Amino acid sequence: MQLRKLQEMGGATLLVSIPREWAKTSSLRKGSLVSIEISGDGGLLIYPVRDRADERSEKEITISYPSRFSNEGLPNEITAAYLLGYDLIRVRGPHRISAKDRERIISSIKRLIGLEVVEEDAQSITSQFLVDNTAVEPSKIFSRIGALVRAMIADTLEQFASGEPLQFESISERDDEVDRLHFLLVRLIRTAIRDSRAASKFKLTAIDCLDYRVAASSLETAGDYAIDLAQSLSKLRIVNDKLKEEVRSLAKVLDSIQDGARRSFLGKDFTLARQVFANYETLESLLNEMREEYAQSLPQFLHVADTIERIGRAQRDIADLVSPMSPA
Q: Could you read off the pLDDT of 73-98 as tens digits, one per residue?
């Protein structure tokens, strides 16, 4: 760390010199332009003003076709490039891309929010990320994911308690949307970690970025458990009114956990987080009672109980990220 004194010029302007090493590394000289921004924590961020073409070239990647792993691995390479923040992703090979591989590549591109095919010929497919990285707030994406997961679980439990057929297709479609939003959120968080300008725009510290990454993973996991929950409930052979009412009670407590986890995390509210912990203990107690009750007469329910507990734990893990020192 270097300490430098402020100098006064003209009685109104304060000046500070920049490190010579940084200026040299950034190719700055007399007359060069720099941008100055105020960060979320009150500091100043200074960046060299780059030519747009230079910025774009740093965010391009070419993926070789055929893939060095296998053509089945192409979607994974595209997703990895997307998550790493590349704006222009080009798949190119020395030979014609087969129809089957072309379909697989385009399908994987369509699964990623903001990524669109902009150029295509026999030997290459070029896609571009068309969304401004700083225009979409991570908190809003996180809230949307949370709302989708919460609805998936609530609808599944209510359909079961009402005796309605479980809508697997609807749950699966929403889980696909959860995955797409999760990828976008991870991309934005990684961008914020690498680019302090983006972090400042989102008002995120380094710890915030880490917490968002963990919380997003917990939400995505809860969405996967929702699929498992629907499948497990559909396999229950003996269902009576008592079990339906007990499931409704579970659903109410679980919904409170999910709502509290989201609000405590986004608001950094430890009081809400503590309520989530208390609700999770209530959920565990109810599940243990039901495990004892149905262990013999309905052993299939044990897997349902385990899945509900995993969902609650994933949500509790989000509340765990809220520090007691965070402002309410």
A: 889 999 999 999 999 999 999 999 99
Structural domains in the chain plus CATH codes: 7-52 (2.10.260), 55-129 (3.30.110), 138-320 (1.20.58.220)
Q: Which residues contact 129 (CB under 8 A, 6 or more apart)?
A: 82, 86, 87, 88, 89, 114, 115
Determine the Cα–Cα distance for residues 272 and 321; give it in Å rounded to an integer.
Answer: 12
Under a CB-based contact definition with an 8 Å cutoff, are residues 82 and 89 in contact?
A: yes
CB-count exposure of residue 55 (10 Å: 0-12, 13-18, 19+): exposed
Task: In whole angstroms, give the CA distance from residue 259 to residue 242.
Answer: 26
Contact between 145 and 220 under an 8 Å Cβ cutoff? The reply is yes
pTM of the complete model: 0.80
User: For 156-208, what is each residue's pLDDT tens digit?
Assistant: 999 999 988 888 888 989 999 999 999 999 999 998 888 777 788 888 888 99
- According to DSSP, residue 296 is labeled T
